[in-house]
Design brief:
By secondary structure, the chain is α+β, with helices and mostly antiparallel strands. The chain folds into three domains: 4-68, Beta Barrel (OB fold (Dihydrolipoamide Acetyltransferase, E2P)), CATH 2.40.50; 71-147, 5' to 3' exonuclease, C-terminal subdomain (DNA polymerase, domain 1); 157-214. Helix content is 50%, strand content 20%. It has nine helices and five strands; from the N terminus they run βββαββαααααααα. A five-stranded mixed barrel has the order 1-2-3-5-4. A hairpin with a 2-residue loop joins strand 2 (19-26) and strand 3. Helix 2 (71-80) crosses helix 3. The chain is globular, with a radius of gyration of 17 Å. The termini are far apart.
């Protein structure tokens, strides 16, 4: 029905939950979009002209437009809803919290713990995602640039390192979104992500700076 919208950001609203709100002015028409929190933070500021990829979910009493940063997020959002028991809001939480490349890698490497970091996703749901989506995700990973060229990942030292550091950071009270973002930064900064001590040191340093800048 709709693939994307181009317009000016009118309003950004943080809900405190996994789904935030973005009002996009498209030629004088205000579209009310439901977006994941990381998307809301990254999409731009009020007054910016942006392109938002969208998907429409139709229920008996309401139409909801979900917004994404790129076409790969939108496609993965659709694939997740083919899993038994996963609706659009849970699919959005998964894509928004983990991102395309991390979620794809987690499914293909059967990393149930990583998938469970998304809000509202327990161990049973994570297991169901792996069982029902693995074959489809293999094809998605071959064709999607955002998936990072992942085709046949194995349970690597890096995945185990991320698990160990993630567990420690969650015990300290950091959220799955914060942990995912700091892991993403570590890869971008080419930190030693195979060494648990080095990754933990990097994460605590980055998260500490984030806390200071927020005050």
């Amino acid at each position: 029905m709709l693939a994307y919208l181009k317009g000016t950001i009118s309003t950004k609203e943080i809900s405190g939950g996994p789904v935030d709100r973005l009002i996009l002015d498209v030629a004088g028409v205000g579209f009310d979009l439901s977006v994941a929190h990381p998307t809301l933070l990254a999409i731009g500021q009020p007054g910016d002209f942006v392109t938002v990829h969208v998907a429409v979910a139709i229920r008996e009493t309401e139409w909801t437009i979900f917004g994404f940063r790129d076409a790969s997020e939108r496609q993965l959002f659709g694939l997740l809803q083919s899993v038994t028991g996963i609706g659009p809001k849970l699919a959005l939480a998964l894509v928004g919290t983990l991102g395309v490349s991390t979620l794809v890698e987690a499914i293909l490497s059967e990393n149930q713990k990583m998938i469970s970091q998304a809000p509202g996703v327990g161990a049973k749901v994570a297991q169901r995602i792996i069982l029902e989506l693995k074959t489809k995700i293999e094809e998605f990973a071959r064709t999607s640039p955002a998936a990072g060229g992942i085709i046949e990942p194995t349970r690597s030292t890096q995945s185990q390192t991320f698990d160990e550091v993630s567990d420690y950071l969650m015990e300290l009270g950091y959220t799955p979104t914060e942990i995912h973002m700091v892991f993403k930064s570590a890869k971008e900064d080419q930190a030693d992500v195979d060494n648990t001590e080095e990754l933990l040191r990097y994460a605590l340093k980055r998260l500490g700076k984030a806390v200071k800048s927020a005050h």
